[in-house]
Amino acid sequence: MRNVKSEIPLLPPAALRKIETLSVLRKEAAARQALAELKGFAPAIPNQNILINAIALQEAKESSAIENIVTTQDELYQNFTVKSSPVDSSAKEVINYREAMYKGYDIIKKRQAIGVNDIVKIQETIIENNAGIRRLPGTALVSGAANTVIYTPPQDYGEICRLLDNFCVYLNDEENSLWKMAVLHYQFETIHPFYDGNGRTGRILNILYLLLKNYLDTPILYLSSYIIKSKNTYYALFQEIREKGIWENWVLYILEGIEATSRQTLQKVRAIKNLFELTLERIREGCPKIYSKELVEIIFENPYSKIDFLVHKLDINRKTASKYLKELEENHFLSHIQIGKEVLYINTALMEALKK
Fold first, then answer.
1. Is the model's pTM score more than 0.85?
2. Domain 287-355 carries which CATH code?
3. What would the DSSP string read from start to end of 210-267?
């Protein structure tokens, strides 16, 4: 691939009419329908934190894996739950990503808009530094296989800021199509405004767009697993726009990702709902003295639970909380592991459902 230097037009793109082909409009309709089904079913789980916690941490893992930051789901929950233990560096980066997602979600809930400063805060949370928008020249995107420069993003700080301002104006305007999300994602990654964390920040902006435009009420749909499975196509279609100005294939790719991921996420949400209701019934029958809906919600909201969670949520003492967890383990609802001085109780059935 040849090196493409940045000459980035402002949004909306001049090729806007060419983007709205019959194929794109059909795929847009299919993706909207799949998203609507997911949005409609999600409230069937009354405690939305069960979904947000489970799916957001899984997305953090997948999105980080695109950047070759690899950890297991079990390691993540252990590091997330045992606050006092030394945190593995990869797990720490994934946890930072999850925190950045929540920060973005809070921004949308508070003011229904995203500004440049918000994007900077999200990136700073991911990377854990405040280097901010690139000021020094020399950034280039390199092909890992050939170690050759394939794209040189804008180098001038003023130009980067101008493009980001335009990006946010377009993001927040009244146009709310799904193909627009594909345009925005391309534009952000092409601006490449930060020294590090651009890909992860861009993928968080995708879900924030869906929330901002009311396609979803909660952050439960992410494209990272779809991108991982088609990573070569993802990067090749970026280059197709940069080198040839062809948008349609890229937009269709993202719309297909939204539709496919919506259907997969809906299956996962249904599985979690069914498992939650089954567990409610079984604990009610098998452990009637300790049963409460709130107790079951805790072990679903936190697949790795501990005594402190029950003390805080149920307003009980540590001895009683310990008794509850041990009884759930004796009845095969939980299993435990010990990390240092802390005992964690694992909702193994839920973990298995999340890994599928």
1. yes
2. 1.10.10.10
3. HHHTTS-SSS----HHHHHHTHHHHHHHHHHHHHH---HHHHHHHHHHHHHHHHHHHH
